[in-house]
Design brief:
By secondary structure, the protein is mainly beta. It contains no helices and 23 strands.
Length: 255
């Protein structure tokens, strides 16, 4: 989806409003997601490196003006109807991100947090509750990486969150002695579309709730019951192998 070039009268339940100065020589169209330029505090059509300010309430045309020549009226908090690629009826509560002022996605990498889905309307169309001032990205402060193929982790992956976007891929963990820690693996596919396998070193055990802990086993986020946002979070502080510090969804033990 391309950035807006005309007004978009989005269906929205209006909440709090704000007025912020617009960057020089630009237009923010009605309905556009608005971003705050971190270096100046001025607003513009949202980009992937901005702070989310809300949605433009009415067109702000500063195409011939200098920085801060006009303000943009912004809806800072409320509910907005958005086209979100891949949205299905099981996505209630899922976080939504934007890559520009008119492109909304589930994948957090290279995107800005907008809000959470509160209502499914139709395939790819949802109502999103947003609060630009108080809304918190569930992956805030984490280094985020997309995984579309099999991947073997190493010590440089410490502290990362991996978002698996493709079915039947395996993430292989390094041996415990590598010293890696604080890794989170997230299934970002729609319900029942992606299976994620986590494999450990042959001499390691994955320790966790109700796991027997055999050497070299895998954990599989079962495809048939997998939900968008299922995850496993691992620490490597145990001598016998990685330990699950948090888990969501159905993860079965494999061979």
């Amino acid at each position: 989806m391309t950035t807006l070039a005309v007004d978009n009268n989005r269906i929205k339940i209006v909440g709090d409003k704000n007025d912020l100065p617009v960057i020089a020589s630009d237009i923010i169209y009605e309905g556009a997601a608005v971003g705050i330029v971190k270096s100046t505090g001025h607003v513009r059509p949202l980009t992937s490196v901005d702070l989310f300010a809300g949605f433009c309430d009415r067109k702000a045309d500063n195409s011939s003006g200098g920085a801060a020549a006009i303000n943009c009226r912004i809806v800072r908090k409320g509910t907005v109807r958005l086209s979100v690629s891949g949205a299905v009826i099981t996505d209630i509560g899922q976080p939504v991100y934007a890559t520009d002022d008119n492109t909304f996605v589930f994948l957090p990498t290279g995107a800005v947090y907008i809000g959470k889905i509160m209502r499914f309307v139709s395939s790819g169309v949802v109502d999103v509750a947003f609060d630009a001032l108080n809304g918190v990205d569930p992956y805030e402060g984490k280094v985020k990486e997309t995984v579309a193929d099999d991947k073997t982790l190493d010590v440089e992956d410490t502290g990362k969150v991996f978002f698996v976007t493709t079915d039947a891929k395996t993430i292989t963990l390094p041996a415990t002695a590598t010293g890696m820690s604080g890794v989170k693996i997230v299934n970002i596919g729609a319900f029942g579309t992606i299976a994620v396998t986590v494999d450990c070193a042959a001499a390691d055990k994955i320790a966790g709730p109700d796991l027997a802990g055999a050497d070299g086993v895998t954990l599989i986020n079962t495809k048939a019951t997998a939900c968008r946002g299922d995850f496993i979070e691992l620490d490597f502080t145990h001598a016998n192998g990685p330990a699950i510090s948090a888990i969501k969804g159905t993860w079965a033990v494999g061979s």
